[in-house]
Records
---
Amino acid sequence: MPEPARDLVRIRALGKRFDSRKGLFGKRRSLKAVSDVTLDIPRGKVTGVVGESGCGKSTLARLVVRLLRPSDGNVMFDGVDLGRLSNREMRRLRRRIQMVFQDPYSAIDPRYTVADALLEPFQVQGTRLSAQQARDKVTELLAMVRLGQELARSYPHQLSGGQRQRIGIARALAFKPDFLVLDEPTASLDVSIQAQIIALLEQLKAELGLTYLFISHDLGLVRYFCDRIVVMYLGRVVEVLPAPRAKPRHPYTRTLLDSTFAPDPTQRRDISRLTGEIASAYDLPAGCAFAARCAFADETCRARVPLLAADPDGHAVACFHPLT
Amino acid sequence: MSADTAITARRADFRRSVAAKVMLTPKGGIAGAYLILLVLLALFAPWIAPYPYDAQNLKIASQAPSLANWLGTDEFGRDVLSRIIYGARTSLSVSVTAISVSVFVGMALGAAAGYFGGLFDRAVTTIVDLSWSFPEILLALILVAIIGPGLHSTMFAIGIAYLAQFTRLTRAQILSLKGETYVEATINLGASHGHIVFRHLMPNALAPVIVCGMLATGDAIILEATLGFFGLGAQPPVPSWGAMMSSGSALIFKAPWIIIFPGLVVAVTVIAINLFGDALIRALDIRARLREG
């Protein structure tokens, strides 16, 4: 048997444009949510994507699981081009690609009990379960996310945010997927609950050999949880850190890192605040999107878009004046 | 218990509890009891009504209420009470059938338009908005004028007149529900359009549509009576509340009971339907859910 490829997911030149028009005869506007993203997601690793809100990271997540169709480029999952699959084939493949959503409060139909929600994956995939099998599955999935089976008959509004997020994870795990996209799974939870969910995700990864794409705006969390970090700014990848502690080379990553809170007061540095406004995704500047807020920007930065270039360690940066 | 039986069992619980919640409030209970009584009267009219609806006796024409004719007699000497009981058949069957068809077609159109969007949505919205700009009565009158009077055309006209309302309501519901994370999450599990629409969107959109349908049935009874009053609904000798009032209007000073009692029944029935609808809104917790969401 041939060795499976190192990368489970390969993203090539992926782009997503949203067109909108005000009124019937209004001006057409197009928003570039994601432009030209090329990224490999190695098997069995946690790849983190960070960036401030509106940088396209959630759009990227939805493109990867084909909840959205890309405008350009493609996503290869284990050698299969998702863009070429029929809807039927894609629905079948969803057993292997799953996603956990940001808002656990609305991720479950309010009319469904926990048991209904956990059996829904089997229902939509056309897997017939006997009454006994269904009961066993519910218990098994609840146990997998460390919940007791007494919750099976509860409705979502009777559960806490952390419990709901665990149900969301259990639903995603129903078919033992290979790849899980986590779209800010802890962003709407309390800090103490966040830690529990992250610990659960770490255990599940080890138990089931999962590959994660972890979307977050919290660089501190990403540095703790991820093996590799992808930094996005206005729809583009600006830097790929091959290790969570790698020294940032892009000025944006540097500022992002400086703004994370250090628990030890003696370790706190002066934060260099960003000046200027984030550019509008409707009207991207000609050159580097970060140029307007960057201390090192010059004429070249404002005229041309810097390309992502990797060094031998796999540390890639899209900047004309990378930090050393 | 398989996934489907679990869902079915729970739905049965849910329905039972809603019925209980409606009937146990004073308003809902009284209105519900009245409506059940009316339905029973309509169903068993031949056994309950003291006289046949078309038994004429000119010797006792336009007589005031008496022990023999509790609500008096009309201009042909027919028993007003019997005609009101038989008239319930016409009013209820016309309004309920018309609104049911309207709800069904409206939900299908609205759901398809809201879910798939695009050109179909534009077409449906435009046509519906156009018909929305006419008052229901005017629309129904125009339609009956085109297709001719009678029971069936009354049903058809009322059904079309209220179609816009249900289409718009369902479409708006589906549009807002479509953005819920659980819809995206279910697509992510590999669900088909059918599953999304029938297992998630429709059940969550249903409650407001049912209540709206309930309230529209009250309006439809008035509309049916109006068409009947103009002689465009049920044709004689089939009794309808509207037609009875119409014939009674000629004798309004001489024999007011001919017009008063059918009018009273229309009014009470419409009020009962509205009260019942209110209780249903509370039982289904629609306002609370709107506040939350």
---
Amino acid sequence: MIEIKDLHKSYKMGSNSLHVLKGINFTAQSGELVAIMGSSGSGKSTLLNILGMLDGADNGEYILDGVPIKDLTETKAAQYRNKFLGFIFQSFNLINYKSALENVALPLYYQKVGRKERQVKALNYLERVGLKEWATHLPSELSGGQKQRVAIARAMAAEPKVLLADEPTGALDSKTSYEVMDLIQKINDEGNTILVVTHEEDIAHMCKRIVHLKDGVIVEDKKIEQVRAEQYV
Amino acid sequence: MFDIERWQEIFDTIRKNKLRTFLTGLSVASGIFILVILLGFGQGMQNGIEKEFKQDATTSIWAWPETTSRAYKGLNPGRVVRFKNRDYEMAGRLFKEEIEYESPRVFVRGVDIVYGNEALVYGIQGVSSEFQFIEGFGTSEGRFINYKDEISLGKVAVIGKKIKEDVFNKMDTPIGESIDISGIRFTIIGVFNEQNEREEERIYIPLTTAQRVFNGDDTLNTLSYTLPPAENFEEAVASAISFKDNLRKYLKEEHMVAPEDESGVRVWSAMEEAKRYYGITGNMKLFFWFVGVCTIIAGVVGVSNIMLIVVKERTREIGIRKALGAKPWSIVGMILHESIFVTAISGFAGLIFSMTLLEVVGPHVEIDYIVNPSVNFNVAFSTVMVLIFAGTVAGFVPAWRAAKVQVIESLKDE
């Protein structure tokens, strides 16, 4: 599903150049649940941005579902993001004046799905994250865990190939974190490919594979025994 | 444009920012309002001046003699020039092709006017039958002097409406009444009316009668003419000026007045005066346009400014939208759509308000030189369209900036 070969990325900081990614090689199969770990400055956010087509690589190959991602125009990148990727953020990033339902329906709007169909689909996804009754509520009326579940429903709504989660539990307490991880695991059980960036060991161990980044290179890549979040909920 | 979702987006943002939207709208609406009112008054001034000049037939040209100021052909300066009947006849023959109406005029001085036991103090002028067309007045009762009166030295008089009101107010009509001018009985045959009251305090008698009975010579005080109506204003002015110059040249030669002498022979053209006033109104209009356009520019800058703030406020939201797959042009469209919507609504509001005000108040405006200020709807409408276009251009820069929002930057936690 995801194929990365010898990926390099450096940022110019004035006259200095900061080499952030120093040749990343990484492959993820369809249906995998991968945790990307690393301390701050290890390059994990940069990697996620490149995977998310929010930033381009300097060197190397990135193939997503057989499609080479290279030299994208903004319009093309937007199209691919909409079609291939679903984002889950640490700070949820819901649009605050839109109801939960409208937030979930938004990626469908950009897929040019009709209004009626959009609402039906969005409601369906809200039901799957257990928030059907909250459809008309604004984000400000929801708890942190609920917000993240709405965000997950939104990421799912576009039916992407890959879900990219950037510290999805970073702003939540442990109980809510496990609830969210439980949801992510269940979505993964249905065959969705998910990449989770985290620095929390327990969250990482709820994935099926852990990739350790350090100073711009992968230092460790191991399959693990998945800890189900269900038992903590 | 007909995307319901996008309309909802706009209404959502407007609802969320009522004050901001209201202030933007107000600046645009007042821009249009001021422009329309200014244009209306520009038009009002033009109407007023046109009206002022229509009273005297606009094409009238007057010539009168004065004292010379330069020596010429052995004649000393300070000589008094006098027009004679011959000048009138010769000029009439010479410029026959160009003239529509013509009339000489003499002032009858040193006479006593008596009606019954009452002594009247009014000016008496001897004129020919065509004089009424040159002054452009109508006869409200009876008739004006005619050709027959002229050749028969008729003892008839036409009085101004003011005289009728002052002196003959006790009867239905003054026609048929007699007045005594230095012992000679004149029968009143008509009443004329003019806009200007001062000119209504006059008595007209046939020129021939005035010359033979009172003045005893063939001196004329004024030669007056009108030219036939021209296709347009410019042509009318051109022919008036050319006629004026030719007439002056002829009269100067005839009376041995130096060609470069400013006095001696004077010719005045109403048209030329009118042109000067039109020139002023033209400049005024230009100035009004300038002020109006500046106001609109201020409005447009306001819109642009507000949209920049909107974009800044919504940076995060735009970032989210881009992460979800919004294309740059869809972001540009969203921002522009809002800017166009606000400009259009407030622009038309300003237009409707100012037009209504002009329609309602305009006809009641009674100020000198301002008559019925009004504005051409098409002009006003086009102005709003231009404003909307300008609003679009003004909104484009912020919109473009919005489309260029970096997703990573915008989603960073503050």
---
Amino acid sequence: MNNFTPTEFIAVVNQTLEYAYPSALITGEVASFKINQGKWVFFDIKDETSSISCFMSVWNLRIPIEDGMKVTVSGVPKITKWGKFSFTVENIKPVGEGSIKKAYELLKKKLTAEGLFAMERKREIPTDLVRLGIISSTDAAGYSDFIKIINARWGGIKVTVAHTQVQGMDAPDQMIRALKYFNEKSDVQMIAILRGGGSADDLSCFNDEQLVREIAASKIPVITGIGHERDESLADLAADVRASTPSNAAEMLTRDRNEEKAKLARTMNRTYQVLMQTIERVQDNNNRSVKRIFDAINTKYIEPMLVANNDKMKNCLKIIQDAFSNVQNILVQKIKVLDALNPERVLSQGYAILSGKISPGEDIDIMTARQEIKATIKDIKERK
Amino acid sequence: MMEKSELTLNQKIEKLDEKVEWFYSDSFKLDEATNKYKEAIGLAKEIEKDLNSLKNEIEVLTEDFSK
């Protein structure tokens, strides 16, 4: 049988505990919670019959805790040098709707008082967004929805994705590292933090104090699309822009290319109309002015000379008439050229404009004088 | 002839808006209008082509954010 000193025995027991429980999770109710010297946190975690002393540093306390809250702690068991059993906590999070809500309200009150959620801190989405950073799990449905929608709506954006956990105890630290990465090593214009729907427990990582502070401190504007419309996290409140879901974030960040195409056609048609109306107005004015001059010359000089049967003046009259006719012809030609450029005129003759990739199986848009049609190409044959 | 530009899609749309604005402004001159209109049509066609063909480029970082 071994004979130990107390120090040796405690070391052996701690080695055994470390081997048996390199990391353990314990869920229970918090009691006797206190912070000493602003650095060390002590509390008990208990159930109906048992209680365990817990110890942790304030740095690891990421959300406000009070007596009576139900929490899950992760950490390692240990015997202290005084021979007392203690659980060294590395991570703590509230569990159950009541505790999550309580912790949320406490932290919200604290950070609101610090001004982290103030409206005057909010920045807008860049108008010309061409470089976007995403923080999300690439396996998540919310991420897939986001990518699908931005690809359908718009193009030309370079999207850089930081794959992180978006649920669980490690998620806040991973998202913080990704935020630091984008702020320090990238040139993205906006960061989107995305996660689809889930339970209050699933989404509780977005109420982590350090994550919320990192979002508020980000030099690059942040948009959040977390959970569903009804879910509101502290990350949402700290972000510059809050979208209700990942899909909504995609809609807020991009314009719709189909709407832009329709707007483009309307703008060019309206511009053509303005141009045509102006040319017609100028032509009318020119016609009237030339006619007035012609009438004046005619009345004052030519008619009297014609009466006198003067051949020289007859020639003069012809030159003036030809010049007037030339001016008219030039204007008519200009109008014809402009008219030929008008796509509406082509459509009104029964033609259609196709747009899209001309390849079997591809979807294309067809515009006629009265309709906008979507169609799929079945087959293509060269004309003989 | 329109120069092939390195402008982004949004910048091209802004440029077209400026060109169209000219037709409604006091700077409008009939003898410049045909050329301005041709320029606007050229840019509009370029924008439409971009709207039909431009794709987003998606890159997933290889960095491990769990450490």
---
Amino acid sequence: MTPETRTPPPAVAPPDLYGRARPDRMYRLLRPVVAAHLWLSKRSVRRGRPVPVVDRDLPVVVSDRRVEADGVVSLTLTAPSGDPLPPWRPGCHLDVRLPSGLRRQYSLCGDPADRASYRIAVRLVGEGSGEVHSAVRVGTPLVVRGPRTAFPLVGPGPHLFIAGGIGITPILPMLRAATDWHLVYAGRSRATMPFLAELEPHGDRVTVLTGVPAAPELLTRARPGTAVYACGPPPMLDAIKAHWSGALHCERFSPPPVVDGEPFELQLGPGGPVVPVAADESALTALRRARPQTVYSCQQGFCGTCRLNLVSTTDSMLVCTDRRPGRVVLDVRDSRDS
Amino acid sequence: MPEPALVLAPRAVTFDWSAVPAHWVPGEPLATHVMNTLHLVLPEGERWFVHVFGQALPHIRDDKLREEVIGFIGQEAVHAEAHQGAADHLAAQGLDPAPFVDQVSWLFRTLLGDRDLPAPVAHQWLLERLAMIAAIEHFTAVLGRWVLRAPLERAGADPTMVDLLRWHGAEEVEHRSVAFDLYAHLDGRWPRRVRTMAVAGPVLLWLFARCTRWLMRNDPLRPGPARLRDAHRAARRGLLPDLAGLLRATWQYLPRAYHPSQDGTTDEAVAYLATSPAARAAAR
């Protein structure tokens, strides 16, 4: 799949398409055109400019912290300068760098019209959220990036919003923007469900379900032409996907963590440095520590962009998902990695 | 208000070609083959994008752009393999695309491949190719927007093929700014933008025209020669993009102040991807 590298300038054009005994006419004509581009490239060396470093960090400070439900706190973030924050649309999230350096993504759940502050809400479930709950207070400075969106609200509706637990966060601002909508909000118990009071004024446009409702119950209000927006735990999303064949919008998640992995080693070329791969990380994660320029994309083993050949075999590996026992020697002299 | 940046990531789509007929726009062999050219040109072209973008990655000094380029690379790689599947299906139906694909392969791997150049010139050759890709991506976004709106199902076009084209078109609209932004970040010189468009536009048109002609000539169902007036007629039915629109689009790329986020709407692409059978099946 990798184009051959470092070939000398082409001597001839490919054969004619219709079998005539001469090189193909179009490609014969393209050779001098590409030669002109090469010549212009040589000329362009002189006035090249350095690449500017673009800083995407946005410093903010926690200006309010509230307990929204059992195990859920919300944080209000404002710019220390008091300047307006970058605009956003319902469905956007922030990348938040916590004081420990951990990075987590949280949906914006405030009002997009409020340019002075962002609001996020965090359920206590792991290391990152533990830090938010224990170490982040009013006045704590944080660095965020974004907003970006993986869950944009589009179309005139009707919209059926389905939220499971903390999955209510990206949906809340959508309720301000949508006109023809209904919300089904499910959670284990009312005590664990944030923002119930904020939903009160919407009356019977909001259905609150407790326990683990089945997909048909979540989809009661769906009609042909309804756009379903669902955010919640993966089993809930899978059930909705299986029961609903119309338009379905879900927030796209990061790749699943490595489970039951064995540690192994990567060697970067024959005689090259050896990079250990821990049991709970992918070979890609380890390789990127040693070679930040490594090409990859999906991190789930389907796009093929991270495939690297193994030295002295005809074998190759997808470094994002493949694991090999012992040590493998990667052919990383490949020019696209240099 | 500027649109907030969309998070770009590839989708693990699959298509079952087994039931797709040879003339998948019924009674429109020419329109069928104009769109089939994508299966012959894009796999090698998009692999070249991935290769060139992979070389650009270490030079990027903007974390947001880097993430977008990584998403772009995966989307393009999946597009290439999806169209490869459609090309293999053409071969199975008795229209072996190999002679044409071999030429395309020579274009991208040899003529536009890496050259043995001194490092500063090699870097400029990389930038030149990034500018070419930005110009090509301008057309893919225009065509993506076209295919999202084209009345293909009214003409009875095969739903699997329509889904391939619209899913691909929607992702082209989603990532339409990435190649432009990458070129602007690493170089951005306007003369280079103009000269690469001046070449990429006509060459693409030529490549697609000769590919259509070759497909019509080699179609085992013998639909007759590729005629311009059939193309005009299909364009009037909305089954092909019209030439005047493509020329206008080329012109729009040239002003210094142009940016791809100004044209097309991401919302249309997002709405299609929520209904696309292939994209939905791939959602995880």
